[in-house]
Each structure stands twice: as structure tokens, then as C-alpha cells.
Amino acid sequence: MSIPFCLPLIDDDVIAEVNDCLTNTGWLTTGPKVRELETEIGKRSGTSVLCVNSWTSGAMLMLRWFGIGPGDEVVVPAYTYSATALCALNIGAKVAMVDVGADFNMDAEKLRAVLTPRTKAVIPVDIGGWPCDYDALKAVLESEDIKTMFQPANARQEQLGRPLLLADAAHSLGATYKNRPSGALADATVFSLHSVKNVTTGEGGAVCLALPHPFDNLAEYQFLKSFALNGQTKSAFEKNQPGAWRYDIIDQGLKVNMPDICAAIGLAQIRKYESELLPDRRRIFEQYNAAFSQKDWAVLPPYGNDVCSSSCHLYMLRIAHATEAQRDAMIQKIAEAGVGVNVHYIPMAMLTLFKNLGYRMEDYPQTYSLYANEITLPVYNGLTVEQVDAVAQAVIASAP
Ligand SMILES: *Cc1c(COP(=O)(O)O)cnc(C)c1O
């Protein structure tokens, strides 16, 4: 028996939707399928949505939109995938890392301590699909001392009057916080539609705009649509209408638009996200919870309470008191049983790039202690009850 860690959902609905793109619309790059996917995601987040070709490019787009660049600082949690930091480094900004809380997510008080007059954005991450405490994070950014310290350098920064709260919701499509959906919880939110995520377009991302008054989110969507397409006022689809050949380049944009052929995959998936795909993930989470809840060595991942419900992206099990070496030995045994597991995440401060930039693991003790005994178990559509049981048995057999 062999159970891979992750598999994308490619079923008859996905094949039919991609086939429709190839044989009926005949349109491959940004066009009607992308627009439809934006509408479907927007129905769920209650916001304007712009689809792009990755989470990373969507985050870079929003940081550039806010006029962030060299000399500016962006705050990210120490516990995340490196893309959360790379989007800021790649536009020339500096990255300040902040340690997380026991729920894996950015801690509001630790955030307050790293804010400086140069801080222009904060990117909290809903790790594993568990939403951050957005009210607490927002309260820090909107406190009088932070607003007074903020030094706006352009009209958009002037209008917001504080650092941008940009949510990394790469994991949290379908999660809720205080009965509000992920996508509507920060000034702007970026979902990832990468192959390993809950809904995929192969590679892709979606930017949700929930900017506060007096921003006009629809107008900003229109601007970002061209900003994501070289700053061009018309897409190839729009230019393709007879007589519509003339266009303008209104800003120095990126080229990060999503192709229709990719959107078709995600469109087939998101239409049944609430009715089938998310309940299927919950079923897997609950089966793992039942298998481990009686084990005194098992620390279960956050799943649901009065405040939040998870999108069940990653089942991040922790082995109480296990050292990094003991955890690694467990993974070895689990692999020998034919089960693919993973660790989310190797903290950035342990990776070469970030070590060379001067980040030190000792500065993020909670991040290290969460990482050292964490094992992520398979969660994906199509994983059967028997397979989940086999994973749980392999984990239990490997436990100290
Ligand atoms: C996957 C992921 C990203 C990057 O997503 P891409 O679409 O591959 O750019 C960013 N942040 C987190 C937490 C992720 O897991």
C-alpha cells in the first residue's frame, strides 16, 4: 500500500470544463472562464476578486499597488512558507519576521513590538486553514501610536493612514472568522490556487479587495486588472473584438494574469466546494481527530470553535515533547509504511537564504517549538476512509 501526501482533484467535471475551453470557447488566455472564476470566488468572499497566476504574484501586485519598495519594511510571521517573505524581498523591501502564537498564527502583541516608521505592510498567514485573530491584528495597526508613527509616501498610503493588512490566505479558502469568510477579513487577501491547495488552477492566485472607506474597491479592481496585465487598458480578449484595437499603457504593471485554460480547472472545483470538497476535508479531519484524541502524545491542530472554522487545508499533528530528531525518526517509520507525510514548515530562519540575510532561529522560539514536533498528514479529496485509517495506524505505530 502506498498513500501519497497530496494529489490534485482531476475528475469528470474538471475534464469537461477544460474541454469546454479547448473545444467550445477556443480561448486560452484571460477571458470568460477567468471572469466566471472571479465571480464564484467573489460570491464566497463578498468582495471584488482579481485572478492572477500565483499567490506570490498577487501579493507582489498588492505591495506594488501600495507603492512599497526599497527602504520599506514588510512584517511576516517566522512560521510560514517562504513565499510570504519572498514577495516583499522581490520588490526590494526589507522583511521583519515576528514569532507566532500557540495556534501557529501571527501574534498581535509580538507584531506591535516589530512595527517601525518604515513598516508599510503586514502579512499574517492563516496556517493550515485556521484564520488569524484579525480583529486583534487590525486593532494594533489602527491604534493611535501606530498611525502617528506611519509615514505615508504616496496618495494610497495617505488614504489608508497605516500599514496595509494583506492576508496570506493561501490555505484558508472557505474558512470563517466570527462568521465572516476568509477573503473579507483584511484590507486585501490573496488565495493560492497552486496544485496542492484546496481549490486549484494548476498555478494561480486570487486577490480579494476589502479596502476600508473611502477606497472604491470596484475602481481599484479595474485598476489592478490592467496593473496585472502590463498596465494595459484592454486584455487580449477585449482587443479581439472588431475595431477595438487601440489601447493605452497607464502604469508600469506586472504581467501576472491568469489564463482561461487554468481557470477552467478551478471553476469546476469551486462550484462544488461547499457541497462536496470542503465537507470531504472535514470528514478526513474528524477521522484523524477521533483516531488521535485519546493519545496522550498527540496535540491536535486547531479545527473549529466559537470564533473560527478551519478550511481543513493541512492536518498539522504535533507530538507532545518530541524532539526534532524523534519527529524525524517517526517520519522515517511512517514512510517505510508507505505513507507520505510532510512538515509545515521548516522555519525560514533555518533556510540558507534567510540565514545569509541575518535571521536567527533563536529569535523565534515558539516557531521552533511548533516546527520541531510537527507532522502534516495527508488531506485531499478522494482520500478514502480506509486510507485515512491506514495513515492513522502508521502514525500510531511510529509513536514513541
Ligand atoms: C502555497 C503558499 C504560498 C504561495 O503560493 P503560490 O501560489 O505558489 O505563489 C504562499 N503562502 C503560503 C502560506 C503557501 O502555503
- The CATH superfamily of the largest domain is identified as Type I PLP-dependent aspartate aminotransferase-like (Major domain)
* Main sheet overview: 7 strands, mixed
Specify the structural class.
alpha/beta
The spatial strand order of the largest sheet comes to 1-9-8-5-4-2-3
| CATH third-level topology of the largest domain | Aspartate Aminotransferase, domain 2
CATH class of the largest domain: Alpha Beta
Tally of separate domains: 2
Strand content: 5-15%
Question: Regions with pLDDT < 50 over 5+ consecutive residues?
Answer: none
CATH architecture of the largest domain: 3-Layer(aba) Sandwich
C-alpha end-to-end distance: 23 Å
The percent range for helix content is 25-40%
Q: Helical segment tally?
A: 16
Mean of the pLDDT scores? 97
Distinct ligands:
pyridoxal-5'-phosphate
- Alpha carbon gyration radius: 21 Å
Report the strand count: 13
Shape: globular
Short description:
By secondary structure, this protein is α/β, with parallel strands linked by helices. Helices cover 40% and strands 13% of the residues. The protein has two domains: 12-270, Type I PLP-dependent aspartate aminotransferase-like (Major domain) (Aspartate Aminotransferase, domain 2, 3-Layer(aba) Sandwich); 273-398, Aspartate Aminotransferase, domain 1 (Alpha-Beta Complex), CATH 3.90.1150.10.
